[in-house]
């Protein structure tokens, strides 16, 4: 399996990297969050652009990207517009989604972009192509806030993301039982040991799935998401808590 290097961070090697989302409505709130992330144990930051009230104004969006890039320095920046169908804050049609994410990739400010693997209409492949032309890495993602698919379905989705040309494959699911958490972890281990040519990110959401956010080095998940202030998904731990637990597990 090849790793992905973004600035000074190698994703897919060693302990899972900590990514902290920025989920703010206003520009100054977003920039304030970035400053706090710089002072945290985060390895990378994710701008959850669907939270931003001005996201459909190209000039305002570019200005925020520029200010985030300047603020974060060498900390890698992941651009994500999470659609409402996968738990995001705003609705968006496919052409607008392609345009917005493609513009972020071409901006020179984002190091990675998140692309929903099942956006439809050829959107995923189009954005992957644009991002790679701009030298930007792509995380293909799939989110299910209602259930945990079967192990076979989880594997199928991750393999499809890999075959699409993504640099990293990500899936987040909601457990309804402890067995669901085991299903996610089992699928992660099988994917990384048998099929993966790229790093994978997996998580079981909610309080029941917290264990999946700290045991990635054992089962194969390369990145875990933690909060500094407002989180962006159920079950996120604080970045400081993640740092403590991951350090203990890594050094055992």
Automatic annotation (TrEMBL):
Residues the record marks as active site: 143 (proton donor/acceptor), 170 (schiff-base intermediate with substrate)
Keyword Lyase included in the entry's annotation: yes
EC number: 4.2.1.10
Entry keyword annotation includes Transport: no
Record CDD domains: DHQase_I
The species this protein was found in: Candidatus Mediterraneibacter tabaqchaliae
Keywords in alphabetical order: Amino-acid biosynthesis, Aromatic amino acid biosynthesis, Lyase, Schiff base
GO BP field: 3,4-dihydroxybenzoate biosynthetic process; amino acid biosynthetic process; aromatic amino acid family biosynthetic process; chorismate biosynthetic process
The protein's assembly and partners: Homodimer.
Molecular-function GO terms, alphabetical: 3-dehydroquinate dehydratase activity
Catalysed reaction equations from the record: 3-dehydroquinate = 3-dehydroshikimate + H2O
Role of this protein: Involved in the third step of the chorismate pathway, which leads to the biosynthesis of aromatic amino acids. Catalyzes the cis-dehydration of 3-dehydroquinate (DHQ) and introduces the first double bond of the aromatic ring to yield 3-dehydroshikimate.
Family: Belongs to the type-I 3-dehydroquinase family.
Listed name of the protein: 3-dehydroquinate dehydratase
Gene transcribed to yield this protein: aroD
SUPFAM superfamilies on file: Aldolase (SSF51569)
Pathway annotation from the record: Metabolic intermediate biosynthesis; chorismate biosynthesis; chorismate from D-erythrose 4-phosphate and phosphoenolpyruvate: step 3/7
Pfam families in UniProt: DHquinase_I
Binding site for 3-dehydroquinate: 46-48, 82, 213, 232, 236
């Amino acid at each position: 399996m090849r790793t992905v290097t973004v600035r000074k961070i190698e994703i897919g090697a060693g302990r899972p990297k900590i990514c902290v989302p920025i989920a703010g409505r206003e520009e100054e709130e977003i920039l304030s969050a970035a400053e706090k992330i710089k002072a945290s144990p985060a390895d990378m930051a994710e701008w959850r652009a669907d939270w931003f009230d001005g996201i459909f104004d190209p000039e305002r969006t570019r200005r925020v990207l520029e200010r985030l890039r300047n603020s974060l320095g060498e900390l890698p920046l992941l651009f994500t517009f999470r659609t409402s169908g996968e738990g995001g804050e705003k609705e968006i049609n496919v052409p607008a989604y392609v345009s917005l994410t493609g513009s972020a990739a071409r901006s020179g400010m984002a190091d990675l972009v998140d692309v929903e693997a099942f956006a439809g209409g050829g959107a995923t492949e189009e954005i992957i192509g644009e991002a790679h032309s701009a030298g930007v890495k792509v995380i293909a993602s799939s989110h299910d806030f209602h259930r945990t698919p079967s192990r076979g379905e989880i594997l199928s989705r991750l393999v499809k993301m890999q075959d699409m040309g993504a640099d990293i494959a990500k899936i987040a699911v909601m457990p309804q039982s402890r067995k669901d958490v085991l299903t996610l972890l089992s699928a992660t281990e099988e994917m990384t040991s048998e099929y993966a040519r790229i790093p994978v990110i997996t998580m079981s959401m909610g309080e029941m799935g917290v264990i999946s956010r700290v045991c990635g080095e054992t089962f194969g998940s390369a990145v875990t998401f933690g909060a500094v202030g407002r989180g962006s998904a159920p079950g996120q731990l604080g970045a400081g808590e993640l740092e403590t637990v991951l350090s203990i597990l890594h050094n055992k």
